[in-house]
Amino acid sequence: MKLRIVVEIVSFVFLGIISFSCSQPDSPEGSFDILITNATIIDGTGREKFSGDILISSDSIAYIGKVDREKVDIDQLIDAKGKVVTPGFIDAHAHGDPVAEADFKNFMNMGVTTICLGQDGFSYASENLSPWMSQIDSTGLGVNVLTFVGHSTLRELSGTNYAPQPTEKQLSSMQEILRQSMMRGAFGLSTGLEYTPGYYAQSPEMEALAKVVGENEGIIMSHMRNEDDDQIEKSIHELLLQGAFAPVHISHLKVVYGKGEERAKHLLSILDSARRTGITVTADAYPYTASYTDIGIVFPDWAKAPNNFEKVRASRRSELEDFLRSKIIRRNGPEATLFGDGKWQGMTLAQVADSLKMSFEKVLIDVVGPEGGSGAYFVMDEELETVIIKDSLVCISSDGSPTMHHPRGYGSFAKMISHYVNETHSLELTDAIRKMTSLPASIIGLKKRGELKVGYKADLLVFDPLEVKDNATYEAPHLYADGFEYVIINGHIAKSPDVEVTERYGLFIRKE
């Protein structure tokens, strides 16, 4: 009996070895564009890293395994010894002009190879996106770009603008523009219900548009109506109503004024409960505790368009001062508002008020106004945000651009590694990579990107995780990140330590 057991075990092990050996593809033969050797591969799925070589042919990954150098001819060789190779990062929520800012070097230098534009309810304002897309195709892009259709833009194109309720004709127009835009390659709808004119939309309008998104297999990316701690649950439930018709996604999930681990867990439990009812809901977050948006965010709705600010200033001056004083104090005081553009760029509201010998509420009313610029607002709690970032269905975004005065546009993805992986050990490297690659790809519906897999597009990074550093600060927000040695986009080396690359290899990606 013992002999039989031993024989069976030996046979099982032997067959297992044969099976394993047979499962390994033979080293390919022929010509290839790029060979990456000695790689420690993190494939983007969250699985453990493994060793191997990678062959790239044209714009795609041709082989992953052990390559016999004598059997292949290659144009370019990258020795990745001591480094990891990962998919290029996908920024689920970004900003920028793909015509005027087409290089997008801020993104590439922090490892981002694909960005999602048309966010917060605002996108390229045309009923036909094809000519715009073709124009961008002809001039090229530093990174891959895809777009969503902005809800506020639909209101403008349909003539709805600031009306609380669109006419039947206007709503049909919004639906048709959205439908045609998705047929031409947009990935879904973005909303910015905290901004005008999107702010005026009500549930029937949003649900009608959600149906179009669902019918065309897209997703709704939502800057929700209100991110304040006492309003955010209401905002989430409003979005979940749209989730009955299409997948929904919370852009830059944060809790203004909210604090602590338990508060974050409670909000995440709301999303988990919705998923158990069949709603597909996800979120993204950026690794900073200051938001960035127009200064109008601190003004009351009755002082912003379509209302006349000059009339409000003259007729309701005292009321406006009281509102702004209370609002700013609640938002951690004038020291917590940092102007990001214009004459006062780089100064806090407190510093501007001191320099002008005025109260900060008078500065906002008489000097700045609700359309007088943008700023960073230090209104978030790091403990709460860390819990959100660690959630398995929260991917990473920058909510940044090449020009905004906030470090997130230059540092977000590098900070995920330098801070959350290397410094605080809040995340394993494989999990952090998943949050920046396959997870956003699956959420967005981006095909054949976000993983290192044969047949997938060759968007790859080669880097030493310990060398990754986010250099951008609030004082100097436009400093490139360090550490991403090679960036490969669509099979081309777009960033190299050996030579400065000037060609653009990014594409305008249309939804299939």
Helix content: 25-40%
In round numbers, the mean pLDDT is 94
Count the beta strands. Answer: 20
C-alpha termini separation = 60 Å
Low-confidence segments: 1-23
Report Rg.
25 Å
The geometry reads as globular
Concise synopsis of the structure shown:
With 512 residues, the chain is α/β, with parallel strands linked by helices. Helix content is 35%, strand content 20%.
Explain what you see.
Strands 1, 2, 3, 4, 5, 18, 19 and 20 form an eight-stranded mixed β-sheet that branches. The chain has helices at 2-23, 105-108, 130-139, 151-158, 168-183, 203-215, 232-242, 261-276, 309-315, 317-330, 349-356, 360-368, 382-390, 408-423, 429-436, 438-444, and strands at residues 30-41, 50-57, 60-65, 72-79, 84-87, 89-91, 112-117, 144-147, 149-150, 188-192, 219-223, 248-250, 281-285, 290-294, 337-339, 374-378, 394-396, 460-463, 484-489, 492-495. Helix 2 links the parallel strand 6 (89-91) and strand 7 (112-117). By secondary structure, the protein is an alpha/beta fold. The protein is built from 16 helices and 20 strands. The protein is 35% helix and 20% strand. Helix 8 (261-276) packs parallel to helix 13 (382-390) and helix 10 packs across helix 12 (360-368). The protein has a domain at 292-378. The termini are far apart.
